Amino acid sequence: MTPGVTRYVDVASRFQARDATTPAWLQRVRQEGLAHFARLGLPTTRDEAWKYTNLAPIADGAFAPVVTAGSTAELSAVVARLALPGPRLVFVDGRLSQELSSVAGLPRGLTLKPLRDALVEDGALLEAELGQRALAAEHAFTALNAALLEDGAVLRLAPGALSEVPVQLIFLTRGDAPVLASPRILVVAGEGSEATLVETYASATGVSGQGFTNAVTEVTLGDNASLKHYRLQAEGDAAVHVGGLHVRQGRDSRFVSHNFAFGGVLARNEVHVTFAGEGGDATLNGLYVGRGTQHLDQWTALDHAVPRCTSRELYKGVLDDRARGTFHGLVKVRQDAQRTDSRQQNRNLLLSEHAQADTRPQLEILADDVKCAHGAVVGRLDAQALFYLRSRGIPRAEAERLLTYAFARELVDAVPEGPVRASVEGLLAPKLPGAPRTEVTA
Amino acid sequence: MALLSVRNLHARVGDKDILKGIDLEVGAGEVHAIMGPNGSGKSTLASVLAGRDAYEVTKGEVLLDGKSLLELAPEARAAEGVFLAFQYPVEIPGVGNLHFLRTALNAQRRVKGLEELDAMDFLQMAKEKSKLVQLDAAFMNRSVNEGFSGGEKKRNEIFQMAVLEPRLAILDETDSGLDIDALRTVAGGVNGLRSPQRAMVVITHYQRLLDYIVPDKVHVMASGRIIRSGGRELALELEEKGYGWLGLQDGKGAATKGGEARR
Predict the structure, then answer these.
(1) Which end of chain A is more exposed for a tag (fewer CB within 10 A), N or C?
(2) Which chain B residues touch A392 with a CB distance below 8 Å?
(3) Which has the closest alpha carbon to A277: A313, A300, A305, A310?
(4) pLDDT by residue (tens digit) across A306-317?
(5) Which residue of chain B has the CA closest to A388?
(6) Residue A168 above 70 pLDDT?
(7) Sheet with A167-173: strands ordered across
(8) Domains in chain B: how many in total?
(9) B221: domain range?
């Protein structure tokens, strides 16, 4: 073990020893998580899955969880800025803030609970569901998250429950100390249910906040269920974020992921989708926008394990200054997965000489009756378009901003009009100032 | 003083000389046509005037109302009143046509110390101007030129010209790719913008366009030079006799008969 890993193991051991009343099953989940983490250690660039991402900012083990959120009233203005209309749970430095949370207006058929309550009240469900999609044995960060399991959220959709109102989880880091936050989110969607879940990650201190968030979200979609999932990852430029979204789709289910990665000096956003029933449909959208020395790593894996499923994936990166963006997109089509229809596209726009993009589409196709397409592009602003705009009188810098936003907006426009879109635009605006003011239409 | 003075203009791409000494004077209120076979340098002249940086000007000068243009950036030239109607208008997905045009107009107005137009006032003005080329409102709301037909793109160019009200309009092969109805509409728009305060340079391979936009003067370019200038009759003579009449090779069709020879 490296000294850093030893420190995280010590921190997690102390955390686990703190509470003797923990039910046995939960103790086991945490202990197994710790054992796996100790065995796996932190990945290095020698690991294929982490080839482009250096974990130096967290490797020394300096981050540790806090016990409670403390007084959070002073953060109400920050929350008001981030909050969508509708029910929400708010976490500060990884701990639930009762006073900032509000589950009023939760639509019928939806149950939203803080994980710490559910661990006590719904032990049987959680014992059955936790760690089923995200496997601690296979992923160091999932293991570390399991070792520190305590806060997070459980969202359950009764069969047939339909919700138009987004459910929001806001994760704030104060940013003034090296805090390790380990939220775990569990979504269980019953047959034919439909909902929208928004995870918003931000620093209370704005751009300079530090902190290390290691989030794991597990989603199980029943037959014909539908989930729109948003991840608005917009912490301060000194923060570190590792997020894993693990989804299992039932027959004829629909899943849409909108992954917006704007914040952090180092951020890794993983999306893993497994089709477990025929006729499933998954759309993975991603936009990563980096500047300064940000390193934004997108890692996606689609497992077409059964026939007749459709996946659409579009990830775009905009990288300025010395920022680096990486995209890894694995599409696995198993032997039985005939009539799979899969399309993957990754496009990167480099705005400076020193910005960098690495793109790795990876297709493993074992079935023969499939439609699979993929494409990857790394480019710069189109000189023809730039000249066209300038020839009409638009100054170069403004023309560049217009074209940059035009490149990115496809992912913003993929969000249905409404409060979630507005929230995305608000978080994006400081990073991409070319967004048009609302134009009156003819 | 001429509105536009081009004097001994030389330009090249890489080490290939394309313009080899162009002299051209266009007065306010005048429309000049520049004709010539493919590869004569017509479109290069248009690009150099608008400030495309792919070309290096090696000699000569360009004056607009006596002010030198060559050291100005394209956007500064636009603010001085230069407008290029592109031969191939660029498609810009994700940038709304109206937003683009308002941004452009307001950028020019800022340079001139004028107040910017808000979205409502701009929309009203734009709607008025769009009638000139019968551009449907739907096109104003779409992304710049994206998915437009050839004719729609050219109409959009003239619409932009109407909104930006340039001092000097350069129309680069505005007739290319247009059927006769679209050509009439576009030419009608251009004619509606003729004014005693404005000069136009109409670049074309074919005389056909000049049936609709009647020039005051016609220049024939070849190998980077203007080899002959005259009145409108020069264009008619070219139509009659072809570029071969001037001893010019034009591999891809002559200047004859309505320009059906498509490139």
Answers:
(1) N
(2) 75, 78, 83, 100-101, 104, 160, 164
(3) A305
(4) 999 999 999 999
(5) B90
(6) yes
(7) A95-102, A88-92, A167-173, A194-203, A226-234, A254-261, A281-290, A310-319, A341-350, A371-379
(8) 1
(9) 4-259
Rounded mean pLDDT, A287-303 = 97
pLDDT at residue number A298: 98
Whether B84 sits inside 8 A of A391 (CB atoms) is yes
pLDDT at B262: 36
Nearest residue of B to residue A437 by CA position? Answer: B99
Chain A contact set for B111 (CB, 8 A): 393
Banded pLDDT at A433 (limits 50, 70, 90): confident
Looking at per-residue pLDDT, the higher value among B163 and A70 belongs to: B163
Please tell me the predicted confidence (pLDDT) of residue B139. 84
How confident is residue B51, by pLDDT bands cut at 50, 70 and 90?
very high
Q: Determine whether the interchain pair A439/B52 forms a contact, defined as Cβ–Cβ distance below 8 Å.
A: no
Q: How far is A370 from chain B (nearest CA, A)?
A: 30
| pLDDT at residue B251, rounded to an integer | 47
> Facing residues of A171 across strands?
A91, A201
Cα separation of A265 and A269, whole Å?
13
Please work out, in degrees rounded to the nearest 5, the angle formed at the alpha carbon of residue B205 by the alpha carbons of B202 and B210. 50
Burial A134-168 (b: 16+ CB within 10 A, else e): bebeebbbbbbbbbbbbbbbbbbbeeebebebbbb
Write down the pLDDT at residue A435.
62
Please give the structure tokens belonging to residue A339: 């009539």
Looking at chain A from residue 31 to 90, which residues have their Cβ under 8 Å from any Cβ of chain B?
A: none
Q: Which residues of B touch A395 (CB under 8 A)?
A: 73, 75, 107
The span from the CA of A126 to the CA of A118, in Å, is: 8
CATH number at residue B24: 3.40.50.300
Percent of chain A with pLDDT over 70: 97
Helical segments of B51-195, H only? 74-80, 97-111, 119-130, 137-141, 150-164, 180-192
**CB-CB contact of B213 with B31 (8 Å):** yes
Instruction: Give the strand pairing for B143-144 and A356-365.
Output: unpaired
Residue ranges per structural domain of chain A: 3-277, 382-435
Q: What is the ipTM of this complex?
A: 0.94
Residue of chain B with shortest Cα separation from A400: B95
Q: What is the pLDDT of residue A379?
A: 96
Q: How far is CA B28 from CA A300, B1, B70, B216, B228, in A?
A: 62, 9, 20, 11, 21
Which tokens hold the place of B20? 């080899």
Question: pLDDT tens digits for B95-143?
Answer: 999 999 999 999 999 999 999 999 999 999 999 999 988 888 888 889 9
Tell me whether residues B100 and A402 touch, CB distance under 8 A: yes
Interface of B with A in 56-85 (CB under 8 A): 73-75, 77-79, 83-84
Among chain A residues, CA nearest to B53: A387
Candidates B78, B96, B140; nearest CB to A391:
B78
Query: Where do the H-state alpha helices sit in A104-181?
Result: 115-121, 123-129, 140-147
Searching chain B, which residue's CA lies closest to the CA of residue A411? B94
The token duo for A154 is 């459980």
> A433 and chain B: CB distance < 8 Å anywhere?
no
Q: Is A406 an 8 Å CB contact of chain B?
A: yes
d(CA B208, CA A420): 54
Is B74 in Cβ contact with A387 (below 8 Å)? yes
- Count how many pairs of residues, chain A against chain B, have C-beta atoms within 8 Å: 98
